[in-house]
Design a protein that fits this description.
- The protein is α+β, with helices and mostly antiparallel strands.
- Helix 1 runs antiparallel to helix 2 and helix 2 runs antiparallel to helix 3.
- It is elongated and about 75 Å long.
């Protein structure tokens, strides 16, 4: 029973640790709510699509931890479920290797998301570059609001 609970805990840790932090203008962290921010009208100069990669935290893909945890879980499950006698060692090694590759590939894919980089110009001539999730699409010449606060800069309509 304890072994199953431990394996379930490891699987949950792998999948929750791979979740990306949102940089959407529509998402606020709890520490940002009920805080004052300033807004400034700006004009979009240039917009281009980018890929945002989350590299924060011990469970992110670049640390290799998801692959190691996948290898451990896969090896233990493979040795317990597949094979008998000396064959279980081979089954554990093979399933651990396959599980590590799958876990690392999944972590790499889950840590990437589409984003947008926008260069905006304020009425005073100051230019600012803002990168955020691609929740909203902007075009050159469009008037937006540049919201600045504790969470950084956001562009919104």
């Amino acid at each position: 029973m304890i072994k199953r609970f431990f394996l379930l805990f490891l699987c949950c840790a792998v999948f929750t640790g791979c979740a990306a932090q949102p940089t959407s203008p529509n998402t606020y962290r709890a520490t940002e709510a009920l805080r004052t921010s300033s807004a400034e009208a700006v004009t979009v100069v240039r917009v281009r699509p980018v890929t945002i990669v989350d590299r924060d935290g011990i469970m992110s893909a670049h640390t290799g931890v998801p692959g190691v945890l996948g290898a451990v879980v896969g090896a233990v499950l493979g040795a317990r479920i597949i094979g008998d006698g000396n064959g279980r060692y081979l089954a554990g090694a093979l399933s651990g290797t396959v599980s590590a590759v799958i876990a690392q590939t999944a972590a790499n894919q889950l840590s990437r998301r589409d984003g947008v980089e926008a260069i905006v110009r304020s009425d005073s001539g100051r230019q600012v570059v803002v990168t955020q999730d691609a929740d909203q699409q902007f075009v050159s010449g469009e008037r937006l609001f540049l919201v600045s606060g504790a969470g950084g800069y956001r562009l919104t309509r």
